[in-house]
């Protein structure tokens, strides 16, 4: 799924219904440039169509409001969110919250369709790759304009929703990138676990190669497939004093930096420290529970901290979390807190005060925290995080403690991705495979990625 695909699909859909839209007074919302072909309802257009909304003002009974909450997820998340809605409505009987959910695959098409029709949900889940796109289109409300308490939100993650002089989304919870390690494989290889505060990328290649050499066939040091997703490039670039994106949403690193990261993986594969490329591709595509660490076939696999419980369960024994190599090797630390997802509000909500109240309650209420636990990452609200810690499972507590430890060293948030970031991630996957299979050199891959990613995001 790319960030632009839903909008382009909506262009064809809306073209067939122009007369109906015109009759409804919506045709003026058709976007004119190619990059925004789907009709969207901007905040300014909404204000001219109806009077400013105030609490309890919207055509219903005085003091009563109905708002809609949209999210993606599994059945367990749907049930959890219904519990949230029930608890909130019990505290606020004048507000009705209507659930609006689907799976990840259909969420963005559905949200684009609703937005094009001027029917954006009042409160919605957002993801960092799409947040700027929706904000720049005028679809999201600036949360700084509402009574949403951010005083207890982890300051190192709050910035992920701040850009363009506004706050457009607030992280529900945080994850951090980790090297998930199997102590049993290290022990079988006779190799000591590294000091993750000081180890370098050279140490990483040496240790992983040694583990492969000291264990039976089919067991490897690392599950390393280069740069299959943007987070690997983000950490590496930040370690080198750069970033995947600069604050304005343009490419924030040079091609030499990217090429050097690919060379780390190519050297590791050549030394036997990671599976051959074709095998690595299969392992990478199989999912976390079939990873090297989860199946006892490797010492280290890179994942997000909130995946520890599932992978520990698959492995059948305790795993250990390590910082990425190179955190003290170059110009600065590269790790950052990633928003698991964000909560945003519609700029065209008929009941903005009620929507803000619900959003605030989900972020800041201990009762909400007890229902959500770590489903949306370790809670971004520090008080709620402390409140629910004892209620987490053993692996989740281990992950939470790791996040706490790493947070003390994290310097800042990664910059917010620009419009088109989802499509850029797909581009990265394609070029990554071409580099690892030797079809192009790392330098050629880096230069091509920067050129094509810049074209996608409109730099």
UniProtKB/TrEMBL annotation:
Residues 1-27 form the signal peptide. Residues 28-65 are annotated as: Disordered. Residues 38-51 have a biased composition (Polar residues). It holds the Pfam family SBP_bac_8. Keywords: Signal. PANTHER family: ABC TRANSPORTER SUBSTRATE-BINDING PROTEIN YESO-RELATED (PTHR43649:SF11), ARABINOSE-BINDING PROTEIN-RELATED (PTHR43649). This is Extracellular solute-binding protein.
């Amino acid at each position: 799924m790319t960030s632009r695909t839903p909008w382009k699909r909506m262009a064809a859909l809306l073209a067939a219904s122009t007369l109906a839209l015109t009759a409804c007074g919506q045709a003026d919302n058709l976007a004119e440039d190619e990059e925004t072909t789907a009709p969207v309802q901007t905040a300014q257009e909404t204000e001219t169509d109806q009077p400013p909304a105030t609490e309890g003002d919207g055509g219903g009974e005085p003091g009563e409001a109905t708002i809609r909450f949209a999210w993606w997820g599994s059945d367990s998340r749907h049930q959890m969110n219904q519990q949230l809605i029930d608890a909130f409505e019990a505290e606020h009987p004048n507000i009705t919250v209507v659930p609006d959910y689907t799976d990840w695959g259909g969420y963005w098409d559905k949200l684009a369709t609703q937005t094009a029709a001027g029917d954006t949900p009042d409160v919605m889940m957002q993801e960092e790759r799409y947040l700027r796109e929706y904000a720049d289109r005028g679809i999201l409300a600036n949360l700084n304009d509402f009574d949403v308490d951010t005083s207890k939100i982890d300051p190192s993650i709050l910035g992920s929703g701040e850009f363009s002089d506004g706050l457009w989304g607030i992280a529900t919870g945080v994850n951090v990138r980790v090297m998930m390690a199997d102590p049993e494989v290290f022990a079988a290889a006779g190799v000591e676990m590294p000091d993750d505060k000081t180890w370098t990328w050279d140490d990483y290649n040496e240790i992983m190669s040694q583990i492969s050499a000291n264990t039976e066939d089919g067991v490897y040091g690392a599950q390393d497939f280069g740069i299959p997703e943007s987070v690997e490039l983000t950490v590496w670039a930040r370690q080198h004093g750069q970033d995947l994106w600069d604050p304005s949403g343009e490419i924030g690193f040079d091609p030499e930096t990217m090429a050097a990261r690919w060379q780390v993986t190519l050297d590791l594969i050549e030394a036997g420290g990671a599976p051959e490329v074709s095998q690595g591709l299969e392992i990478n595509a199989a999912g976390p529970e079939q990873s090297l660490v989860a199946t006892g076939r490797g010492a280290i696999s890179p994942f997000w901290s909130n995946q520890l419980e599932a992978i520990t369960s698959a492995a059948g024994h305790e795993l250990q979390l390590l910082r990425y190599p190179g955190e003290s090797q170059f110009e600065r630390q590269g790790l950052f807190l990633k928003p698991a997802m964000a909560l945003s509000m519609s700029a065209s909500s008929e009941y903005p005060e009620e929507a803000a109240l619900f959003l605030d309650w989900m972020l800041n209420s201990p009762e909400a925290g007890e229902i959500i636990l770590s489903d949306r990452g370790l809670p971004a609200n520090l008080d709620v995080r402390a409140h629910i810690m004892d209620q987490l499972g053993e692996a989740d507590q281990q992950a939470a403690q790791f996040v706490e430890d790493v947070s003390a060293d994290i310097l800042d948030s990664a910059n917010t991705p620009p419009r088109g970031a989802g499509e850029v991630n797909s581009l990265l996957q394609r070029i990554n495979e071409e580099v690892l299979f030797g079809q192009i050199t790392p330098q050629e891959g880096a230069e091509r990625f920067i050129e094509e990613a810049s074209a996608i995001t409109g730099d």
